[in-house]
Amino acid sequence: xxxxxxxxxxxxxxxxxxxxxxxxxxxxxxxxxxxxxxxxxxxxxxxxxxxxxxxxxxxxxxxxxxxxxxxxxxxxxxxxxxxxxxxxxxxxxxxxxxxxxxxxxxxxxxxxxxxxxxxxxxxxxxxxxxxxxxxxxxxxxxxxxxxxxxxxxxxxxxxxxxxxxxxxxx
Length: 170
Prior knowledge:
Elements: E1 2-8, E2 16-20, E3 23-29, H1 34-60, H2 63-75, E4 83-87, E5 95-98, E6 103-107, H3 115-130, H4 136-142, H5 148-157, E7 168-169
Parallel strand pairs: 1-3, 4-6, 5-7
Antiparallel strand pairs: 2-3, 5-6
Helix pairs in contact: 2-3, 3-5
């Protein structure tokens, strides 16, 4: 990504950025050190790249259709899912669910994994809508997905921590 830095005497402390026509415009105070500005630019680039990745993944693959298919197959179409989308900032977890709002976020890393693994994570997060913890009854429902054990093994091999309950948002 091309970067254009615009320094201003009117700016005192803040640095801002916008992305337009493939260029990141950085607005910075004149007095900021080159070292600090380089660090800030790196962070802005990472943020814009993640935003672009998220947008591309959500255009490429309609997770709403996938969720509706899985909802019909495993839940009789009874679950109410407000939204489901890829997230480009979930590096430690593969999915998260806000069970009160019915929103699901799926890590961008799953786009590179087999479809059956992605489907398992979606089913896992969908179960949180009706069972917002990792109790025995939660796992009983998740295990109805035919490739659940295989997908869990795959994710464990990729560094997933099975005991973590950090995928639940309240």
